[in-house]
Amino acid sequence: MPRFVTFSRNVFIPLTNICRNNCAYCGFRCDIRHPEAKLLSPPEVKDILTRGARAGCSEALFTFGEKPEEVRGFREWLLRLGYDSIIDYLAEMCRLSIRIGLLPHSNPGLLEGSELEKLKPYNASMGLMLETVGIIKAHESCMGKVPTVRIKTIETAGKLRIPFTTGILVGIGETREDRVNSIQKIRELHERFGHIQEVIIQNFVPKARTRMALHQAPGLEEMKSTVSMAREMLPSDVAIQVSPNLISPGELVRCGASDLGGISPETIDYINPESPWPGISELQAMVDIPLRERLPIYPQYIKKKWYSKEISPLIMELSDAEGFRKTYK
């Protein structure tokens, strides 16, 4: 069991819920004609960032549906904001985040090398869930969920020395062998490039009005087994993260999990809106070892200086001598 468990204090910024994929378990994606379909405007983003800074957050988690420009009608929305591409818009919002005082961590789906290079200077870290290397029914007709193309993005991030988050989803129709093979692939990528700072072991939660609404969620024993397997297979410098708003983390920490991800005092989990974040004191009560707050870039990557001159002053302002978050009062 680790000496302490880490977490970050963040705000969740869903730039858009338009996505070219249509995964059977996803409740985040909207059809562009749906009343809840959205593209956040710069003032809306600024408001979230400002509230996050006032609440003592250090991380701005940017996420959106994958390659939304491939969805008919979305580009017109984007052009009305004055941007030619969602990646250009994301880069500008990351720059805004830095000016306000939050370190960006972006999860924009599949990216080409040129797109990763454009975002790298303005992100403390980035992420893409591998989900599974298995071929599953839940991903049928989802171009972005082909395992080889997701692996390529993670690999390219490694070549660019971007501190990276990835992970697997448990219970979406994959086999145990698929989980082992997924963790094996993540380990191989880290052994080649050294850029995987954390691996999320996330349990599937059924969503109403999705094709998997009646699909059974994995139980605690299945999650404990998966976390234990991942801890045994992954190098010690790669943290294992579990989501405390989706599952009680206490026993998973005893199985090797050492991080509880981003906890937001200001925003909901837009991917799992039915599952509220625990407060920090509540979070501490869930585990029987100390909590330690971190930045979206892990201490070892701060020490290795895997960050750009654009975010260096903010990292120095927010981090302590060990590379964790300075005590926030």
Report, as a whole number of angstroms, the end-to-end distance.
28 Å
**What is the CATH class designation?**
Alpha Beta
CATH topology: TIM Barrel
Number of domains: 1
The whole-angstrom Rg is 18 Å
Multimeric state:
single chain
Strand content: 15-25%
Biggest β-sheet strands, sense, barrel: 9 strands, parallel
CATH architecture: Alpha-Beta Barrel
Report the count of strand segments.
9
Q: Give the name of the CATH superfamily.
A: Aldolase class I
Would you identify the regions where 5 or more consecutive residues have pLDDT less than 50? Answer: none
- Individual helix count: 11
Q: Which bin fits the share of residues in helices?
A: 25-40%
Element pattern in H and E: EHEHHEHEHEHEHEHEHEHH
- Overall pLDDT level: 96
Coarse structural class: alpha/beta
Envelope shape: globular
Descriptive account of the structure:
The chain is an alpha/beta fold and 329 residues long. It has a single domain (5-318), classed as TIM Barrel. Helices cover 34% and strands 16% of the residues. It has eleven helices and nine strands. Strands 1, 2, 3, 4, 5, 6, 7, 8 and 9 form a nine-stranded parallel β-sheet that branches. Strand 6, helix 7 and strand 7 (239-241) form a beta-alpha-beta unit. Helix 1 packs parallel to helix 3 (86-100), helix 5 (147-159) packs parallel to helix 6 (176-193) and helix 6 (176-193) packs parallel to helix 7 (220-233). It is globular and about 50 Å long.
